[in-house]
Amino acid sequence: MSTPLLEVNDLKKHFPVRAGFLGGITGYVYAVDGISFSIAKGETLSLVGESGCGKSTVGKAILRLFDITGGQVTLDGTRIDDMPASTLRPLRRRMQVVFQDPYSSLNPRMRVRDILAEPIRNFGLAKDAADLEKRVGDLMDRVRLPRDAVGRWPHEFSGGQRQRIGIARALAAEPDLIICDEAVSALDVSVKAQIVNLLQDLQKDLGLALLFISHDLAIVEHMTHRVAVMYLGKIVEVAPKRELFAAPKHPYTEALLSAVPVPEPGAQRERVILKGDVPSPINPPKGCRFHTRCPYAFDRCRVDEPALRQTDPGHWSACHLHDRPAAENPLAGAKGAALIAKH
Ligand code: SF4
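Above: inputs. Below: predicted complex with iron/sulfur cluster.
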């Protein structure tokens, strides 16, 4: 088996909570608390979960925007989480990011030409000025913006066009992996679909790997290969897209999926309404972190934390229900997210 492009092993990021500005540490926010996954070359993995579950922290930790608390991050066989900044520089080029907000992520004082030229110059990718100009023009073609728009300022573009510029800037560094952190969340529905289609096309054409971070399962359904579902700093389920959407093996995924519209006319999913709010990541529940909201919780769930384990080939779930006989497991088979006929 070939080496995965990205491997994340037991990643932890705990942020200290301080009493006042200069006060001592009174606790920790367990934003990411021991998660593992890998992404193959040319693969899209979507990391989904409600706001505050830690998914954006995972993206930032991979990009080394801060030091991690524990675990390892490996890019193409090289461990990068403990690498000095000077050694990391050439590897940084291979991982780029597209942020959520297309308004604040572009420097308003730079024309598009300079925004796109900056990473090309920084990483020494152009042979000469003519090559630099050609690369900038090619990037505009790639993201389907007119070449003659390179002389314009960011504020002259719509939100969707700015996100295309953000994608072109990420592509300028010739990366192997792009982390899309809620990259379409701030856009209108029709623009969202256009950007998702663009990302899909770029991935196919350039063989890119994507880590697509989103709170919206409906968006990822159309563009991902696999899905990892996060809840309160932990991954609770990982599976190929088709398997996860047809038969989720974790009650939290089942609840998230139940809110996703079904494209077939006359069909709908049985809606699962979760009780209560997401608990605080400062003091996560003992046992299974989802037990305070899970409709199937039983005694063991309150004391024993379930490990993520394989329930079917390539399908992993962290839930004690899978130790029970099939007749007592509401998620056995496809029942959990079964489509039901509309009456
Ligand atoms: Fe629900 Fe228990 Fe499974 Fe956690 S382990 S998801 S509480 S059934």
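The first helix runs from residue 55 to 62.
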